[in-house]
């Protein structure tokens, strides 16, 4: 899958002008089972028409631009979306810089300049509540009329939704906040995970006897916080461990990050991209009175995590 960052780069991809594409537009936050059905339809339609499949997302998400103080926590960053959409067989991920200039693009220009002239769309899959363009004047009905004029078809994402199953990014977020990882997993179709590049931290975990691989959660307030039992997928092997997500209040941390202590592991993975799957929440993040108390609690957390992992293994079907 190819990532196109910025609409100015679309012109460099001659496949669009030559063949066209089947497109869907949205946040796709979480890339959950409901999104998966839409992407399945997208890829299928593209294959039938012999064109590329493309997903358009916005960075930042519109609500993060217009109402940053009330925008919900992200389930997935762009990196996560890229990995998950690639697994689903999408050909192109188009990331549009959602700024004031783009937001002021008229609905007509959005359709003619972007969808028709740049992307040469043949079919569009979109929610019937989708609004776009300056003052949100563009809607589903307008797209249908434009399709008749510019020779592309439009279908509603509702026709691909799972029956009798309420799945949304909002509901997943709620499940994660209350620590119900099992419910979140049902809606996602996989364990909730954070994907990121391991960076050099302050080595405080190593000083305490529990070295960690750290992922900085920049530009995102995670919907989860606390201490978790995790599985860690490195480029080659899956490991188990215990992770803390938060700001490390005991040692005056200020940046939100994920720190994972990988069991029975002694390798350097700085710079590598890892996937940390959250399996069970152990406790909330708290501020301890001393480093000694923190160290003692980490040892307890590790022991509890190993017991949870053992019980999960024992309960798996053989």
List the helices and strands and how they pair.
Layout: E1 2-5, H1 14-19, E2 21-25, H2 33-49, E3 52-59, H3 62-66, H4 78-87, E4 92-97, H5 100-103, H6 107-118, E5 121-126, H7 140-150, E6 153-156, H8 169-177, H9 181-188, E7 193-197, H10 204-207, E8 213-216, E9 226-233, E10 238-246, E11 257-262, E12 273-283, H11 291-315
Parallel strand pairs: 1-4, 2-3, 2-5, 3-4, 5-6
Antiparallel strand pairs: 7-12, 8-11, 9-10, 9-12, 10-11
Helix pairs in contact: 8-9
Mean pLDDT: 88
Assembly state: single chain
Helix content: 25-40%
Number of helices: 11
How many structural units, i.e. domains?
2
- Unreliable stretches: none
CATH architecture of the largest domain: 3-Layer(aba) Sandwich
The SS-based structural class is: alpha/beta
Q: Order of strands across the biggest sheet?
A: 1-4-3-2-5-6
Order of helices and strands: EHEHEHHEHHEHEHHEHEEEEEH
Largest sheet: 6 strands, parallel
Give the beta-strand count: 12
By CATH, the superfamily of the largest domain comes out as: HUPs
Could you tell me the CATH topology label of the largest domain: Rossmann fold
Distance between the termini: 36 Å
**Overall radius of gyration:** 22 Å
* Principal-axes shape call: elongated
